[in-house]
Every structure is written in C-alpha cells, then in structure tokens.
Design goal:
Number of helices: 0
Low-confidence stretches: none
Length: 130
Amino acid sequence: MKYKVSVKQKNLTTKEEVLLCDQILEAEKNVHDFHFSFEEKKPYMGTVEIKGDDKGCTIYRNCENRSTLDFILKQKTKGLIESQYGILEIGLYTRHYDQKEEMITLIYDVMHESHVVESYRLSIKIRKVV
C-alpha cells in the first residue's frame, strides 16, 4: 500500500533538525506494526529500513557504514555500527516511544557506559495515500 512518509530527526543536544525522508512509499502498516524503507535526502544518501510494532522498533541504515539500532521503551539496548575498521557496539536508551495511527515518535540517548553522549528525537508521519 502507498503511504506519504515524512521522517525528521532532531539532535536534542545541538537542536539541529534534519528532514531525512518526505516521499510516497510502498509500506506495510496496520494497527500493531509497520515496515518501510527509503533513500535518505542529500547530503546523507543512505538507505534506511525501519521495522517496528507497539513495543519498539529497529532501524537499519546502509551507507558508508552499516548500522542496526534496536529500541525498546525504557530499556537499554545495543546498536551495531559496521565500518571498514570493524564493528562498534554502542549503548542506547529509549526514553520515549509512541506509535499512533499516523505518527511514531522515538526519543533516545546514545550512551557511553552510564553517560549520555547525544540525545535524538525521531518523528515519523505515515499517511495513507488515497
């Protein structure tokens, strides 16, 4: 089914906001889960796949590096970043995760041990195209 998908990311530390996607896409979505992929806008130019349900989501990104980030509300999880130098494991903490009919909001911290390195908000709008 076709959906108008808009993905915005805001760095809560620097306040920088980036529009990653604003496209009409083929996506799978129902009350409990969703799945779609897109090509990021310039200058990022990565391929992103997002899968999730009402409990959390996983983001896969393939560009100069490949990453897999898992998010579960109020839990510490791990992210893997693969580069030409090897695999780096990062800590993640999901502060807020909410999936509504047309909106998914994710707020998370990137951790180093018990310290917050960066914080982000990812806002995803998904509207069915009639």
